[in-house]
Amino acid sequence: MSDKTAYTALVEAHRQLYRYEHLSAIVSWDRHTMMPPKGHAARAAAEGTLHAHIHRLRTDPRLVEWLEAAEQEPLDAVERADLREMRRDWIDANAVPAELVEARSLAASRCEHAWRTQRPANDWAGFLDNFRPLLRLVRDEACLLAERTGLDPYDALLERYEPGMRATHIDHLFGELKAWLPGLIARVCARQQQAAPIAPQGPFPVERQHALSLALLDLFGFDRAAGRLDVSAHPFTGGVAEDVRLTTRYDEADCLPALMATIHECGHARYNQNRPAEWAGRPIGRPRSFGIHESQSLFFELQLARTPALAARISPLLNAHLGPQRAFEPDNLHRLFTRVTPGKIRVAADEVTYPAHVILRYEIERALIEGDMAADDIPAAWDEKMAALLGVDTRGDYRNGCLQDVHWSKGSFGYFPCYTLGAMYAAQWAAALRRALPEADARIAAGDMAPAFDWLHTHVWSQASRWETDELARRASGEALDGRHLRVHLEARYLG
Amino acid sequence: MSDKTAYTALVEAHRQLYRYEHLSAIVSWDRHTMMPPKGHAARAAAEGTLHAHIHRLRTDPRLVEWLEAAEQEPLDAVERADLREMRRDWIDANAVPAELVEARSLAASRCEHAWRTQRPANDWAGFLDNFRPLLRLVRDEACLLAERTGLDPYDALLERYEPGMRATHIDHLFGELKAWLPGLIARVCARQQQAAPIAPQGPFPVERQHALSLALLDLFGFDRAAGRLDVSAHPFTGGVAEDVRLTTRYDEADCLPALMATIHECGHARYNQNRPAEWAGRPIGRPRSFGIHESQSLFFELQLARTPALAARISPLLNAHLGPQRAFEPDNLHRLFTRVTPGKIRVAADEVTYPAHVILRYEIERALIEGDMAADDIPAAWDEKMAALLGVDTRGDYRNGCLQDVHWSKGSFGYFPCYTLGAMYAAQWAAALRRALPEADARIAAGDMAPAFDWLHTHVWSQASRWETDELARRASGEALDGRHLRVHLEARYLG
User: Fold this and answer.
1) Which residues of B touch A42 (CB under 8 A)?
2) What CATH number labels B206-338+419-495?
3) Segments of chain B scoring below 70 in pLDDT
C-alpha cells in the first residue's frame, strides 16, 4: 500500500473534476460563439445541472479527510505545492453554503440578463432593483468567506482571483499610481495634440480580418493544432489547456480593435497552451492568478505589440491581408497603437488612461463590499472620480458610465484590480527580461521573438501554480510586485 | 402526497439524464465540427467520464423500484406511454454488465481508430485483427441482451434502433424487394442509357455553396434561430431538440452532393425541432426509431427534393448562388437528381440501387451475429452479393467494398436495415399524404410545401414516441409498414 494514499485519492478526485470542467468550458465557449438564440433555456438547464455536479464533487466530505491525512504523508515539494492549491480550492468551495451560492447565482443571472437591455436603455433605476438584492447576497458571501478565512470581506473575494493579495497592498500600489498618473496623462495628451496619426480607411471585410488574425496568431506563436479562433460579442480566451478557444470581434469600419484583441487574447492563450502537460488536471497546473494571466495578455499587447519593432512586423501583414494604405506604414501604425485619449469606456481605453478606470472601480467596489457605500450612491461616486482622474463628464450617461461593465451585474467583485496588477507585472517582466538578456530588444526588433517567449515560458508558463504569487515574481524578476516598473515603462514610451 | 410519486421521481430522473445527454450531444458535435486535432486525448477522457456518469444514472437501482411502483399508479395514457419508454431505456441500460459495455467500447474505439487508416490502405488483414475480438464482444452482448429480452440475438440488437421490428419481418420485406429490385435496376439503366444529363461545371467556392445550403434550409423550413449548419467529414444531425446542429460537406468540384446532404439532414433536423416541447426530457418525447427518423430525411430527399416540382424551386437558388449554367435548368436538374448508376459505394448510391447495398449488409451482419458466418468470410460474401444484386465486381477492393462503412468498425450492428425501412416508410407517408389531400402534389408544384410539412407534423413529428412504431404507422397511413409503396414510388418515377 502506498504511503501517499490520501494524496493519490486527492489527485484522482481532481482529475475527475478537471474532466467535468472540460465539459463546462467547451459548452460555455459554445454558448458564447456558436449557440443560436433559442438554445438558451435548455442550455442554461444543462449547465446548471453540470455546475451542481461539480459543486458536489468539490464539497465531497471525503476531501477533508484526505486533505488532513495527506499533510502527514511524505510528499515531495511539487506535491506539497499541489496540496496547498487543493486546500485553497476546498476552502473556496466549502466556505459558503450551497443555498447561498445558488441564491447569489440566481440573483446574478437575473441582474445580468436584465442589464443587457438596461444598459442600452440607460436604465439605472431598473438596474438598481436587481442590483440591490444581488449586492446584499455578495456581501453575505464575502462575510462568510471572511469568517472562514480570517480575512477582511473584500480580501476574501480578492482571494478568488488574486490569492495572497490584500486590499492594503493594492491601496499602496494604486495610491502611488494615483499620485503620478493624472499628471502623466496630461503631459502625454499635450504632447500628442499636434500630430494625429492617419486613421485606417475601411471597410475591412470580416473574412480578410479573420485571415489577418490567424496570421497574427502564427506570428505570436499560438499552436493552431491545439486551439481555434472564433468570434464573440466580447473577446475572451476559453476552452481547455489542451484545446484553447480564443475569440475576437470584427468591426468592418476599423481593423485595429480586432487586431489588438487577437494579440491580447493570444497572450492568455499561450499561457494556457504552455503550462506543464504533466500537471494537467492537478491544481498545481492551474494558472497562478488572474493578475498573472492578465500579465501575459498585457505583455503581448503592451510590451510587444505596441512597440515600433512590432509595428514593423505587423505592417506587412496588414498590407497583405487588407491591401496597403498609408495608415499601415510602420511609423504611423505605432503612433496609432500608442495614441492616448481619455474617454468614458474602459475596454476602449489606451494603456495610459486604463489604470484610472481600474482605480475608480476598485475604490467603489471595495466600499460597496465593506458597507461604506450603498448601491444607490454609485453614480455620484463614479461621476466624481471620472472627473478627478480623467477630466471626463459622465453625469446622467449611465450606459457609458457605471452601467458599462458586465462584472458587477453578475456579482463579480474583486476582479477589476487584476487588470492593473497585470499591467504592472507585465512591465516588471519586460524589465527583468532586459536585465537578463540585454540584447532582447535588438533581437525582437530584428524579427526574432524567441527571447520574449522563452523568458515567459521559463519564468511564468512552466511554473503554473508551483509557487505562491510573490515567490513566482521573486523567482522571475528578483522582487515582489513593484509598481515602479509600470511608471518607468509608460514614461519611457510616452515621454521618452 | 401525490398518487404518482414513483412516476414523478422517474420523470425527474429522466430530466437529469436529458441534461447530461445535452452536454454529451454538444461536445460530440464540437468534436466532429470544431475540435482541433490535439484536443483529442483530453476530450476522449472528458467524454468517457461523462458517459460513465450517464451510465450510472441509467442504472441507478432506485429506477427499478420506481418502475414497478409506477405500474400501480393512476397514470393517464400519455404517462403510460412514457413509462413504457422508460422501461425500455432501463432494459437497454441494465441488460449488459458495465465491464462488457466498457470492453466493447474500448475494442470499438481501437477498431474504428485503426479503420480510419486501414480503409485508405485497403488493409483487410489488419482490420480483421481488431474486428475479430470486437465481433466476439458484440456477439456476447447480443446474447446477454437476448437472454434478458427473450429475443433472438440479432433482434435484440435491432431493438435498440428499431424497437418492435424483428428479423423475420425484415426477411419478408427485403425478400420481396430482392424479387423485383434487380429487374427494376436493369430496366432503369437501359432506359437512362441514351440521354445523359449535363453535369454541373465547377469550381463552386465553399462560401457560395454554404450560402446556398442556408437558402435550402430556409426553403425546407429549418428554424435557424434554433440550430445551425456546419461542416463535418460525414454529414450528420446532432445537437439537441432545442438547438439542432446539422452538418454537410462541400466539394468544390461538384455542388450536388452538399445540396442533397443538406436537404437530407434537414429532414432529420425538422423531426428534432418539431417534437412536442412539453415532452422534452421525457422518453415519450424521443424520436420513435431510427427507421422513422430516416423516413423523415428520406421524405425530404426522395419524396420532395427529387421531384420535378422541387427541381423547379431549387434551380433559381442554384443560379442565384453559383451563377446560372445549363446544368441547373429544372429539367436537367431533375434528371441529375434521378440518375441511376450501380456502383460500389453506399453513400454515393441513388435511391434505386441503395436498397441493394442495405440488403447485402443486413444479410452479412445478421449471419455474423447469429454465428452463421465468421469475420474472415465477409469479403467472399460481399463480392458474391455485389455481383448478384448490382452486377458490380468488388474483388480485392476492400476499401470500396466491405471496408467502406464505419458502422461495423465501431461495433454497430442492427442499424443498416433502418435506411431501407426509412425509404419504405417515406414512400408510405407520401402515398398517405396523396390519399388524404389529393391536391398536395399540385400545391407543392405551385411552390407551397405546407401540405407536406403539415402532414409530417401531424402524423410523425408531433407523435414522437407516443405510440409503438406499428401503431404510429397505422394512425398515420392506415396500415403497418408495407414495402409495396416503395416499389410503386420507384416504378412511377423511373419507369412511368
Assistant:
1) 22, 240-243, 280
2) 1.10.1370.30
3) 1-2
